[in-house]
């Protein structure tokens, strides 16, 4: 049997000890712990990496602390537009959804697209129609309402500016959640979900649902889920770039992550990070920002959780 491993993230950015109270820190770590244990349990039960990452991300979507699913930020119109993607490293099949509203768990919709359609990405009303046809759960607007998110939006809603998810005015936080895993069969998978940017307009879509940019999985190399300023991650095709360095240049996972996250992205001005896992159970959690909500667990080892650099 292959050694199982799973890693998750809840966003990156300017996350310092001074920007979180001890109560907030405890809450974030508890949410990360719950999500990763849920995914890890699925792996120990012999379930697929796809199942594990979907469960972990679904748990983070249900937690209002993170900018995805229930905790999604407000758009310019005072609504919520969510993106998500999932990919199977064994088959290279993928599913993605962009700009959907009222979907309780966008990652579940992305998985359903991957498993029950001929398409990779659906968006907007069409994606919601597909969700209705496949019994995906919807939720009313009040489900997505959060006082902290509303106050974030209130600060900028009368302007033409958008802002990244943050906890204080001077802090930037890239609001995305994600998971990567390898199962007992040596298959890897990746999943990512986000509520986007506060006060965003024009149905802006970031890197999260773009296969190869924010999400990618390939048994030959690794599975990756990204978190950062999406425009830069799309320009750099970050997730696929890490995989390509491993496949075509023989880089190790750590070497590939170092090259892309710490060098290429930095040169472009891109801030953020990613989580990655190989089919051998190697894990990487690189980020060039001050912090990243993250957790990992390999086989029967103790769960690792961290926020700061």
From TrEMBL:
Signal peptide: none annotated. One of its GO terms (biological process) is proteolysis. The keyword Repeat does not apply. GO terms for molecular function: hydrolase activity, acting on carbon-nitrogen (but not peptide) bonds, in linear amides; peptidase activity. This is Isoaspartyl peptidase. Substrate binds at residues 204-207, 227-230. The record marks 175-176 as: Cleavage. Keywords: Autocatalytic cleavage, Hydrolase, Protease. Gene3D superfamilies: (Glycosyl)asparaginase. The active site is at residue 176.
């Amino acid at each position: 049997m292959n050694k199982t491993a799973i890693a998750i993230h809840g966003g990156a950015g300017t996350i310092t000890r001074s920007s979180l109270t001890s109560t907030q820190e405890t809450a974030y770590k508890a949410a990360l712990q719950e999500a990763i244990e849920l995914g890890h349990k699925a792996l120990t039960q012999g379930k697929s990496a796809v199942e594990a990452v979907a469960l972990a991300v679904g748990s983070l979507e249900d937690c209002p602390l993170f900018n995805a699913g229930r905790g999604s930020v407000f758009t310019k119109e005072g609504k919520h537009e969510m993106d998500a993607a999932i990919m199977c490293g064994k088959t290279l099949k993928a599913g993605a959804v962009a700009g959907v509203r009222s979907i309780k768990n966008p990652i579940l919709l992305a998985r359903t697209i991957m498993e029950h359609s001929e398409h990779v990405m659906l968006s907007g009303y069409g994606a919601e129609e597909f969700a209705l046809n496949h019994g995906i759960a919807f939720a009313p607007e009040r489900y997505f309402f959060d006082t902290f998110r509303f106050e974030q939006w209130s600060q900028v809603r009368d302007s033409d500016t958008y802002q990244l998810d943050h906890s204080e005015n001077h802090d930037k936080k890239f609001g995305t959640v994600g998971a990567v895993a390898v199962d007992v069969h040596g298959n890897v998978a990746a999943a990512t979900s986000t509520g986007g940017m506060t006060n965003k307009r024009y149905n802006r879509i970031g890197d999260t649902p773009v296969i190869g940019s924010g999400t990618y999985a390939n048994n030959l190399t690794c599975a990756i889920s990204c978190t950062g300023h999406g425009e830069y991650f799309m320009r750099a095709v970050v997730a696929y770039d890490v995989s390509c360095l491993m496949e075509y240049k023989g880089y190790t996972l750590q070497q590939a992550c170092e090259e892309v996250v710490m060098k290429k992205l930095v040169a472009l001005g891109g801030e953020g990070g990613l989580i990655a896992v190989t089919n051998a159970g190697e894990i990487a959690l690189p980020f060039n920002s001050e912090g990243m909500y993250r957790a990992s667990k390999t086989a029967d080892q103790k769960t690792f959780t961290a926020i700061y650099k």
